[in-house]
Specification:
heterodimer; A: about 300 residues; alpha+beta; Alpha-Beta Plaits; four-stranded antiparallel sheet; 4 strands; B: alpha/beta; six-stranded mixed sheet; about 35% helix
Chain lengths: ~300, ~220
């Protein structure tokens, strides 16, 4: 008897899902509009997340040795500079210190930027004596900053620059970006839920008479809710499929340009793209959002309709 | 058995639709409830179906006090009662067979068994050959018979009918009443609300008269 009941329950689920799909497809224009809306709402944050994930992977691949550049005050003698070098060499977490006199620093700068002739025509040397510090590779950015302040406390030190600060800033920006994408994901996910909820609410209203009849012959709220939950599922699932298609198309159009950009920077990096499993997951996520939206509408509006 | 004790139904700002009505309808009994418009006939059925709650008094059906049936148990309670409406209350986007199948689907009856019973019910009301038809393709009398088939398909112990012959010609009306009589002889408690005194007088069953909400 129980297996017969289960069979009947499964049959009603199959019937409800098929009928709901048929109802969704019977209004192709409205359904496509909703699928597009949910598709965009899902594709934007997922695409953004994918992009950030790739950039984060790329920044993690960048290898660097933490280093500092210490500029001494103008007029600090070579002898004093070498004394300071000896003091700094004894600091913890410093692997190597290279001292450049003001003249040597000017030559180094000329070599770096390629304007040697112009620099040598200057009446006075604007470059101070400089120390290049190579730090312990495991030193954190916070510790590096602490070391920077320690160095700034030396009276003859004019300025200290953290050479890899740009990478740390980029990582910080990426962390902020990731959180913004997360917030957008939550907002757009909620928007999708509300859109589906509203569509299901309208579907419930349009079938008010039918609901009344079902209640009169003993249909429970759960029985009446079932087809509406499937409507939500189909809207969400369709939106998820469309989001996957949109992301695949975006990747198709952008991948060659991204590859060209990496090659131009001589970066050996393969862009992590959307796979089949991710596409299926997006469709399932859409379906879940659809069920949540439909549930929200059905749980509120079905009990309000009474014979 | 249906038992009403001092039942009062008052709609807000209106006079009492039912005034301290007490009556007992025995198991397997068939009764007619009659009276003029506004006498409270339909209100009586609506209270038994828990479509409304009484203002005062007690209603018990099959020894269950309806006061203790909460909103979640109402659906289960209604499944035990067959109800027939004057306006048929059919689903017009579903075939005759699907309309009759509806209560069995709600009950979770096995699909094959449900089809067998739905066809048997349609056969009983002489509509088996129209099982694939849509309700709008049927006459008023045929629609009413679909409603009857839907009400009896779950083999309820109680059958309530609210003006079931209101839109039917005399011959069809008599045919419908004979159907109810047949169900009653099979052991079903039948309560029929009708203002057609000449029709119900032809059948040998108790007649309950209501006037302005009171039994007379």
């Amino acid at each position: 008897m129980r297996s017969l009941r289960l069979g009947s329950w499964i049959f009603h689920h199959r019937l409800s899902s098929a009928e709901s799909l048929s109802k969704v497809l019977s209004k192709p224009f409205a359904s496509i509009m909703i699928w597009f809306l949910i598709g965009i709402a899902l594709a934007f944050p997922i695409g953004g997340g994918l992009l950030f994930k790739n950039v984060a992977t790329l920044t993690n691949k960048v290898t660097y040795h933490p280093s500092l550049t210490v500029f001494l005050d103008e007029g600090v003698s070579e002898e004093k500079g070498r004394q300071i070098t000896e003091v700094i060499t004894k600091f913890d977490d410093i692997e190597d210190v290279e001292f450049l006199t003001a003249d040597a620093a000017l030559i180094e700068l000329g070599n770096e930027i390629g304007f040697q002739d112009l620099l040598f025509e200057l009446e006075t040397n604007p470059i101070p004596a400089t120390l290049f510090l190579t730090l312990d590779s495991h030193l954190s950015f916070k510790d590096t900053e602490e070391l920077r302040f320690k160095l700034l406390a030396i009276p003859e030190v004019f300025n200290v620059i953290v050479d890899h600060a740009w990478l740390e800033r980029l990582k910080a920006f990426l962390a902020i970006g990731y959180k913004i994408v997360l917030l957008i994901t939550i907002s757009l996910g909620l928007a999708s839920v509300f859109v589906i909820s509203n569509m299901v609410r309208m579907a419930i209203e349009s079938r008010r008479e039918e609901i009344v009849v079902i209640k009169l012959v003993g249909g429970s709220n759960a029985f009446i809710r079932r087809p509406f939950l499937y409507i939500g599922l189909w809207y969400g699932f369709g939106g998820g499929i469309l989001a996957s298609i949109q992301l695949a198309l975006a990747e198709f159009f952008l991948s060659s340009q991204i590859r060209f950009l990496f090659v131009s920077y001589e970066i050996d990096f393969v862009f992590a793209s959307l796979g089949a499993i991710e596409a299926v997951n997006i469709a399932i996520l859409g379906g879940l959002l659809g069920i949540i939206g439909a549930w929200g509408a059905a749980i509120r509006h079905v009990p309000l309709i009474e014979p | 058995m249906i038992k009403l004790e001092h039942v009062v139904k008052r709609y807000s700002g209106e006079r009492d639709a039912l005034k301290r009505v007490s009556l007992v309808i025995d198991k397997s009994e068939m009764v007619f409830v009659t009276g003029h418009s506004g006498a409270g006939k339909s209100t009586l059925l609506r209270l038994i179906m828990i479509l409304e709650r009484p203002t005062r008094g007690r209603i018990a059906v099959n020894d269950i006090d309806l006061k203790f049936i909460g909103s979640k148990e109402i659906a289960e309670y209604r499944r035990q009662i067959g109800m027939i409406f004057q306006d048929h209350r059919l689903l017009f986007d579903r075939s005759v067979l699907d309309n009759v199948l509806l209560p069995l689907t709600i009950l979770g009856t096995d699909r094959r068994e449900a089809h067998r019973r739905a066809r048997a019910a349609l056969d009983k009301v002489h509509l088996l050959r129209r099982e694939r038809a849509m309700p709008l393709e049927l006459s008023a009398g045929e629609q009413q018979r679909v409603g009857i088939a839907r009400a009896v398909v779950t083999r309820p112990s109680i059958l309530l009918a609210d003006e079931p012959t209101g839109n039917l010609d005399p011959d069809l009306s008599r045919e419908v009443m004979l159907l109810f009589d047949e169900f009653n002889r099979a052991g079903v408690t039948v309560v029929v609300v009708s203002h057609n005194l000449s029709l119900i007088s032809q059948l040998d069953h108790r007649i309950i008269f209501l006037k302005e909400g009171s039994l007379i």
